[in-house]
Amino acid sequence: MGLKDVAWLCPHFCTRAPGRATPMSSYLIFWLVGFATLWAGLRLFDDEVLLIAALIVGSALVFIGLLSAPTGLQIAIEVALVASLFHLCMECIKRGDRA
């Protein structure tokens, strides 16, 4: 069983046509479109339905970008998110009523 036999399992093994984005840079495209959609949803739409739809689509594109990012970058983003959430939780505990 060679590499050609399992090429259908993952599109990253397949040969790419010239001019197409490489799998390593596709996550950047998803992030760019996702964050642009989030920005446009927050800045341009006053209607709640359009705002919610834009935020759901933008969040999904950012999530797909994170899923297709390299493993090292995924781990770094997850560590940063956990650290920021820990800081936020500590601030909530400091402000809470201790009585």
What is the gist of this entry?
The chain is an all-alpha fold.
Features:
99 residues, 2 domains, mainly alpha, 3 helices, flat
Shape: flat
> In what range is the share of β-strand residues?
under 5%
Mean pLDDT: 80
Q: What's the main sheet like?
A: none
What structural category characterises the helix and strand content? Answer: mainly alpha
Output the radius of gyration.
20 Å
| Unreliable segments of 5+ consecutive residues | none
Protein architecture, described:
- The chain folds into two domains: 43 residues; 29 residues.
- Helix 1 packs antiparallel against helix 2.
- The chain starts with 22 loop residues before the first helix and ends with a helix.
- The model has no long low-confidence stretch (mean pLDDT 80).
- It has three helices and no strands.
- The radius of gyration is 20 Å and the shape is flat.
- The chain is mostly helical.
What is the element layout, followed by pairings?
Elements: H1 23-44, H2 48-67, H3 71-95
Helix pairs in contact: 1-2
